[in-house]
Amino acid sequence: MTLSKQVFPLLLFSLFNFPLLHASNPRKCSSYYDSLRCGRFEDPIRFPFCGHTGFNLHCTDLNKTVLELPMSGIFLVDEIKYAKQQILINDPRKCLVKRLLTFNISGTPFSHRLNVDYTFLTCPKEVVMPSWYPPIPCLSNSTFSFFATSNLALANSMLPSYQVVKRVDVPASWLFQESIFSSSINYASLLLEWDSPNCKSCGMANMR
Ligand SMILES: *[C@@H]1O[C@H](CO)[C@@H](O)[C@H](O)[C@H]1NC(C)=O
Ligand SMILES: *[C@@H]1O[C@H](CO)[C@@H](O)[C@H](O)[C@H]1NC(C)=O
Ligand SMILES: *[C@@H]1O[C@H](CO)[C@@H](O)[C@H](O)[C@H]1NC(C)=O
C-alpha cells in the first residue's frame, strides 16, 4: 500500500467524522451578555445558544461551530444573525441534498423562514437527457444520476423516464427559481429562525 492510499482515508475520516464524534459543548456563558467562540473565525455563541434547551451548539476538534438537530443530525454553522434570530447551516460533507431527504426540525425551537418546493429525481444513466443537466455528484453513481430542481413543471415533464425520489420543502436562504435542473442547492446553506426566546430588542444587534 502506498502512503497516499493510507493517508487519504485517514484524512477524510478526520475531516468528516472526527469532529462529529468528538464534538464538545462550549462552556456555558456566565451572563446574558457573555459570548464565546469555538474558533477565531467563528461567529460568537451567546444567548440563547448558551445553555438554552434545544439550542444545541457544539465546538468540534477543528474549532468549528456545529448545530445538532435531534432528528436530522449535525450541521456546520455558517452564520448566526442574532438581531433577526436566524441561523445559517450547511452540510459538513457538502452533500446537502442527502441531508434534505431526511431533514426534519420537528421538536426544535427552529422554523423555516422560506420554503422552496424542491423535487429530487433519479434517472438511469443511459436515458439521461439533455446531457447538460448537471446531476448532484454525491448522490449519483455508476448506474443512476440524481437531479434536483425547484421547477415543478420541468420535473413533471421528465416523468416517467425520471423517477421522483421525494418532494421537499427546503428552508433555503433565498428563493431559488430555477428553470433547469441545478446542483446549487447541494452547496447552499439552510436558513432557520427562532421566535422564542425573543431577544430581538436585547440591544445586542451590533455586538459581534
Ligand atoms: C482550537 O483552538 C484551541 C484553543 O484556542 C487551539 O489550541 C487549537 O490549536 C485549535 N485547533 C485547531 C485545529 O485550530
Ligand atoms: C417530522 O417529524 C414529525 C414527527 O415525527 C412528523 O409528524 C412530520 O410529518 C415530519 N415532517 C416531515 C416534513 O417529514
Ligand atoms: C445507484 O443509485 C440508485 C438511485 O439512488 C440506487 O437505487 C442504486 O441502488 C444505486 N446503485 C449502486 C450500485 O449503488
From TrEMBL:
It comes from the Eukaryota. One of its GO terms (cellular component) is membrane. It is a single-pass membrane protein. It holds the Pfam family GUB_WAK_bind. Residues 37-91 form the Wall-associated receptor kinase galacturonan-binding domain. Keywords: Membrane, Metal-binding, Signal, Transferase, Transmembrane, Transmembrane helix, Ubl conjugation pathway, Zinc, Zinc-finger. Its main location: membrane. Residues 1-23 form the signal peptide. It is an enzyme of class 2 (transferase). Pathway: Protein modification; protein ubiquitination. Its EC number is 2.3.2.27. It catalyses: S-ubiquitinyl-[E2 ubiquitin-conjugating enzyme]-L-cysteine + [acceptor protein]-L-lysine = [E2 ubiquitin-conjugating enzyme]-L-cysteine + N(6)-ubiquitinyl-[acceptor protein]-L-lysine. It is found in: Membrane. GO terms for molecular function: polysaccharide binding; ubiquitin protein ligase activity; zinc ion binding. Belongs to the RING-type zinc finger family. ATL subfamily. PANTHER family: RING-H2 FINGER PROTEIN ATL20-RELATED, RING/U-BOX SUPERFAMILY PROTEIN. This is RING-type E3 ubiquitin transferase. It comes from Arabis nemorensis.
